[in-house]
């Protein structure tokens, strides 16, 4: 089990940041991701594996208007 | 065009800009046909900075406590600000128009791109006050080359924007050089502005690639209605004093260096980020739909199965690509997209082939999904006519959406609408209503054009519609319509829309992602802090003459990894850019904290101004039920699991509860949360329980002028102190 923005989510072996983004249907382009308070560069979203028990923050940079 | 008849003329010595200011403001009374130059004092620069700040200060001095929007002493004050007109940094051509609004009956500020703001300054003026009411249609011309201000009798029978803008560019420029038209800019409104309260101000710029005059809008608040009430057909400014240093900045090297850094970011990153250069703000279309934020059917829903038809990829194809679409020189973000070679299908321009400016995201939503139409051609045509007639596309969209819902609920019928079947999605009849509103053709069209707040009164009192339902579904705050983002799932955005100075416009704070998706604002205090910082940060753009978009619709490549989440949302490097360019132009030495202080002064001054005009207290921060949650069962059922969960999280079991009961329960919970939010925000802003800035706050900010303190002391009550 992991948390994503404070909500629990099932974890599975090999789960990547990109997998979480897709499951959450986060399509906003300006996303910033931290795993256990460490930032993940955007270009590494697909290759970065998320460990079990991780605290994941997927931050949508403010926009609109 | 025939020669125009001169009614009045005045000569002046155009002051050159120095460190961002000319030091002079111009007042024109179109009724008395008088002219006056005023000096800008150091105190005015220190406390009000420029732009909207100057507008509010000058308007404060010009009106009485009892002044209404259509009184002669009401003004339209136009001012760019000290950074307006620089060409080194993207988004530096904005002006802000300040006036008492016909919709909200208090001060309103609305901004536009185009060339008017910079050319006004380069013609010698930091601000322009227009007061009085003419007895006939006039064209007002400020000629910075000749040093003359002239008032002409308008020769135009048709004063709609596209009918006269290009003619005036041509008339006031060298007839032998089409490129000379770039030295002219024109503000117009139109018939729609005359016949409704939703009048916008169109600000032109000469597009040297297309060889046409294009329009940007100060859309909101009814500035165009005030403009036409004064019988101004057009306001023209002319100046050949155009160069990269016409603003006379103190440190060109820093200005250039900081500007180049942002240009580089835009060129390398925009295609991967928001695609502003190819599609502009409609990059948001599908994003808003996917996050349940796209207003659909008068904000009932935030998603629609036909939203693919208005996807940004569709608009990308409709917008002409490969033309640098900046609305002021040096703006490489270039989001002023346009649809070229569009053949008009309806109304007085039917058959004409035109260029349509936009649509922007809010127009796609307002004159699209919110009225149940998922046809880009309808939106493009409605956008064209809104600009042509001088109508705000946002209020028009939200207002018509309200009409459509009332029609579908049976509160109004064809008898009221003079035969129009105003159901959601009935695009032909909706377009016909827009034409009728512009013409002021019938009683119903006039009623619609008075805005949602007055429609609620009239539909209830004259048509017998149930007042309680109208109050629940009429999406307005302080008298103005909500600006096309569904706010009901974000407590912080209730404040971003409804705890604002002037009503629900998204230029104070857009906090939905921070609050609802990112979960970065868990407590009311966190939300209040965001509702202190962001409105003040964004107010600053309006003081200096900048566009908001280059702040956070592009961000440095490492913004997301270099800063902790809360800080990253502020885009710290861009905030530093603003500090640097402000200092580079003005020679001052402000910090990022002082930047917020500059805004806070004007923000609180405007709050006291609203109070002076009989508004500006807690009861005027109204929020309709639909902004808080679902009103009808079909809204609930569309996201039943989500809303049931909302009840569970509040400790209420939805099991076996009828949907109507669930709606009532959630509304009770959210109304309570709203009141908690209001308290937290007022406290953080240094206001009392009634939303009035305290005298201590005025003193802290250095705006404790006797006349300002007197307004507060007149209205504040001891029992409202915390």
From TrEMBL, chain A:
Record-linked Gene3D superfamilies: 3.10.20.30
Superkingdom assignment: Bacteria
Transmembrane segment boundaries: none
InterPro entries: Beta-grasp_dom_sf, Mopterin_synth/thiamin_S_b, Thi_S, ThiS/MoaD-like
Coiled-coil annotated spans: none
Pfam families tied to this protein: ThiS (PF02597)
Record's protein name: Sulfur carrier protein ThiS
Organism (species): Thermovirga lienii (strain ATCC BAA-1197 / DSM 17291 / Cas60314)
Automatic annotation (TrEMBL), chain B:
One Pfam family it belongs to: AFOR_C
EC numbers: 1.2.7.5
Class of the enzyme per the UniProt entry, highest EC level: oxidoreductase
Domain Aldehyde ferredoxin oxidoreductase N-terminal: 21-241
SUPFAM superfamilies to which the protein is assigned, alphabetical: Aldehyde ferredoxin oxidoreductase, C-terminal domains (SSF48310), Aldehyde ferredoxin oxidoreductase, N-terminal domain (SSF56228)
Top-rank lineage group of the source organism: Bacteria
Protein's UniProt name: Aldehyde ferredoxin oxidoreductase
Native source organism of the sequence: Thermovirga lienii (strain ATCC BAA-1197 / DSM 17291 / Cas60314)
Phylogenetic lineage: Bacteria, Thermotogati, Synergistota, Synergistia, Synergistales
